Amino acid sequence: MTEQPSSLGTASDEFLEAMLRDAELPSLMPALAYLTGDLELVADDVRPVSNGPTVVLAPQGGLTPDQQHLARRRALAALARFRDGGCLAAAPPTSLEAQRALLSFMTGPVDDRYLPMLGFELGLPDDVDAPDWQASALGPGRSFRVAIIGAGMSGLAMAFRLQQAGVDFVVFERNDDVGGVWLENRYPGCRLDTSNFCYSYSFLQRDDWPHQYSLGSEIREYFQEASDKLGLRERVRFRTEVTAARFDETAGEWEVTVTSADGGAESLRFGAVISAVGQLNTPSFPDIPGREQFAGRSFHSARWDESVDLSGLRVGVIGSGASAYQVVPSIGGSVGSLHLFQRTPPWTVPTPNYHAGLAPGLEWLFAHVPYYHRWFRFYQFWTSVEGRRDFAAVDPEWTKPGSVSAKNEALRQTLTAHLLAEYEGRPDLQEKMIPPYPPYGKRMLRDNGAWARTLTQDNTELVTERIERITPSGVLTADGVEHELDVLIYCTGFRAFDFLAGVEVTGRGGADLHEQWGSEPCAYLGITVPNFPNLFCLYGPNTNLVVNGSIVMFSECAVHYVLESVRLLLATGHRAMELLPEVLASYQFRVDEANALMAWGVAGVDNWYKGPSGRVTQNWPLSTLEYWELTRRPDEEHYEFL
């Protein structure tokens, strides 16, 4: 191929034609229609095929080779006209009909209720969630300062929105940089298992992602760059840990105690406290006898010891979930021997391009065709909004073991066939790698064959016998075998139910947040809690996602709700707002009822979504649209104002 042109305006037809071979057509056609104003580009004869809910998307939206050829020909003509016209974009379509035509090209017929949410996620033509108010105008002369705990994904989004609205704030971060879990998790192979185009802010989208499923370092850099671009870094107090927060009922303020790296403590006052510590920040270790007796090196995947060179060593990995699924293939080729201790195997979704970089043509088009990356991001988002939910929903009349409905059983059969093919010729592994629980009962992982290739290596041993105890020399299993090890790695997840661990939170009447929650944390929309006025949580209880939507979008929804709550306080002059207990009780009953009717909530399925009692404390079981609509603004009748 000849040297790449520096802009679309200097690209030849031949070059554009070559780039279009790598294009993802279901999102390219509406992108070009938006860019040029030519709605013929989203005609029915090149519309992606709607096959109903699906877990594995058909390439190019199911378009036939002839349809793909037709779409590329029309796309080439549109790009040539745009180039020859001086690369001037048409006026953004504003009519409801035009917006519906562009969006429904990818989504199929959709209720108009979805359009505001879809427009927000697309981010065109503007950042629709940007506040249209200023604190100085709503509450002139009023001092209202906000404390944000954590400078990860949610904390930075909250800081940006408060900054836009002119609300004073400070972010407290225990680490020495931003990024949250992506700063702390540096284990080999760490990467997203959702599209990075969705794992980015609607207000700060990128057109230059090198992968569709980014490495942890790339996501870490994204948040670090975001803190600089958005002017947030100077508002963060690094290496500062919040240890206590107490609501002063007389003053209507929070007294927050923080400890700096040198051990010095100070108390500061704030109008509101926002927890952005998330769910996945406290490593969980298994309750195995003898864990402290191991004489070799041991560490959790979330606290990876980079000083340990694993080359040639005997390495044991406990766990076969998401982090193990990435760690094991990354170290399997260099260690002397690898012992994987598996309790239950994971279900995996075939994803051949999981580790692959973006195709060169797609990269070039993202960089040079305005808006294309936004429409691509939107298509990735939409295909996961509600499309997989049916596969996890429980049919109360279904009785077949290992699945929860006819659709779930069909998915089980499809995924089982994939796993059997992965371990063809190894009946010993085939028997051990088919999960006994229903698909979506635990976190589903993406599979490009790397896991199976590692497990079938000569230096790898899959151990499914129960661990009896850990010895100074290694791991003793119930069959009496002691597996001698030099290094032991715990890929055993997090104490996800233990929100705000390490922070003493005292509300009205001396209420202790951790006593009130126990092992059953709950908050309205994952955000507000009775007895704790002006305490807001982001990525709080029951806001984790399994089959629908984007966790970044959900966090942005929660951020919007919190910002609207601050606006309400400033506009009304109230000092604080406290959720009514009956509102939470009604809401939580509905969420618990819905979770019990999802694959991850059924009895007998053990996962990190459940607290110690078995109640699902993490996941959102309802539609994405419902969360969007509920978080547009706080209902004043849900709160007592102080």
Describe the protein in words.
The structure is a single chain. The protein has 642 residues and is an alpha/beta fold. It folds into 3 domains: 8-110 and 360-382, no CATH class; 141-281 and 496-641, FAD/NAD(P)-binding domain, CATH 3.50.50.60; 291-347 and 440-490, FAD/NAD(P)-binding domain. 32% of the residues lie in helices and 14% in strands. It is built from 20 helices and 21 strands. The strands form 6 sheets. The chain has a 5-stranded parallel beta sheet with strand order 3-2-1-7-19, covered by helices on one side. A 5-stranded parallel beta sheet has the order 8-17-9-10-13, with no helix packed on it. Strands 6-5-4-18 form a 4-stranded mixed beta sheet, with no helix packed on it. Strand 4 and strand 5 form a beta hairpin. The mean pLDDT is 93.
Q: Quick gist of this model?
A:
Helices cover about 30% and strands about 15% of the residues.
Task: Draw up the topology in text.
Blueprint: H1 13-20, H2 25-36, H3 65-84, H4 96-107, H5 114-122, H6 135-138, E1 145-149, H7 153-164, E2 168-172, H8 181-184, H9 216-229, E3 236-237, E4 240-248, E5 253-260, E6 265-270, E7 272-275, E8 297-300, E9 314-318, H10 322-331, E10 337-341, E11 348-350, H11 360-368, H12 372-382, H13 389-392, H14 406-422, H15 427-432, E12 445-447, H16 450-455, E13 460-463, E14 467-470, E15 474-477, E16 482-484, E17 487-490, E18 504-506, H17 513-517, E19 535-537, H18 551-572, E20 577-579, H19 581-595, H20 624-630, E21 639-641
Parallel strand pairs: 1-2, 1-7, 2-3, 4-18, 7-19, 8-17, 9-10, 9-17, 10-13, 11-12
Antiparallel strand pairs: 4-5, 5-6, 14-15, 15-16, 20-21
